[in-house]
Specification:
It contains 14 helices and seven strands. The chain is α/β, with parallel strands linked by helices. It has one domain: P-loop containing nucleotide triphosphate hydrolases (Rossmann fold, 3-Layer(aba) Sandwich). A hairpin with a 5-residue loop joins β1 and β2. α5 crosses α6, α5 crosses α8 and α10 packs across α11. The longest helix has 15 residues. The radius of gyration is 18 Å and the shape is globular. The mean pLDDT is 91. One of its GO terms (molecular function) is sulfotransferase activity. InterPro entries: P-loop_NTPase. This is Sulfotransferase domain-containing protein.
């Protein structure tokens, strides 16, 4: 049976986090960059946990539904994210997690993607397909980003800094995963797993330290194994296939991304054009 904790933001707005109690002691954190296949990754993690009876808490997803993100929340939420035994999923950024000793000491799974594909996917998401909370500060932020994206072409949006926030996260993920003080990381690249979801799901389950029958894992993957027949910018699952940025971004926009992310691209094994 799930339990609910109520917190308040810095401004005094109440919000809740729901979770299933756990008697496990091992803790795992799952992070995925915006537009890296983060929803797919989160769905696989949560489905694997649900099927195995392991407690999974999608903190950032629950915040988003309430129109919030970590920047609105004080140390009480951070303290909650340091409780042992949970799989914490749905993180799109590092926020203040590195302040938690449990985060540093625990296993972490990370999904990354070519930042050039992230940038074009982020543009289309902001312009058309991204979910918008019913209210709250995050709704205002998403609507501002939507207005900006709808007023610009993809390359202009990228060059003017529209995707710089997600590119900064890409750089931060690279630096933190290389830092020995930040503990154990398993880094997945979107390009390596998107056509091998069954193998990927098996590996996720192993790293979550759960055992599931092969047919259960196969059913979980089948629900997520979606490949659109043609690109549709209005849909959340727009294209799937890697390398689409070459059809959508100018040389100048690609160069902008490569200049901002040069070191992180090298760390994650992405070659410049």
């Amino acid at each position: 049976m799930s339990e609910t904790l109520q917190f308040e933001t810095f401004s005094g707005q109440p919000y809740v986090i729901s979770y299933e109690p756990t008697d496990r002691t091992d803790t795992i954190y799952c992070l995925a960059l915006h537009k890296s296949g983060s929803v797919l990754f989160d769905n696989l993690v949560k489905a694997i946990c649900h099927a195995s009876g392991r407690s999974c808490v999608d903190v950032e997803v629950q915040l988003f539904r309430q129109g919030l993100n970590f920047s609105h929340c004080d140390h009480h939420l951070l303290d909650f994210c340091g409780r042992p035994g949970f799989v914490y999923s749905g993180f799109r950024g590092l926020w203040q997690l590195m302040l938690l000793r449990r985060f540093r000491d625990s296993r972490k799974l990370m999904l990354v993607r070519d930042p050039r594909d992230i940038a074009i996917s982020f543009y289309h998401s902001m312009a058309k397909s991204h979910t918008v909370p019913k209210d709250g500060a995050v709704r205002e932020l998403v609507m501002q980003n939507r207005s900006r994206a709808q007023s610009q072409e993809p390359s202009d949006y990228v060059i003017s800094g529209g995707a710089d926030g997600v590119l900064q996260n890409f750089n931060a993920f690279a630096m933190i995963s290389r830092n020995r003080a930040s503990g154990e990381w398993q880094v997945y690249r979107y390009e390596d797993v998107i056509y091998r979801k069954l193998d990927w799901a098996r590996d996720i389950a192993a790293r979550l330290d759960v055992e599931l029958p092969e047919d259960v894992i196969a059913r979980i993957v089948a629900k997520e194994d979606v490949f659109p027949e043609k690109e549709d910018p209005s849909k959340h699952i727009r294209r799937v296939h890697p390398g689409g940025y070459r059809d959508s971004l100018s040389r100048e926009a690609i160069a902008h991304i490569q200049a901002r992310c040069a070191n992180a691209m090298r760390i994650f094994g992405y070659e410049p054009d």
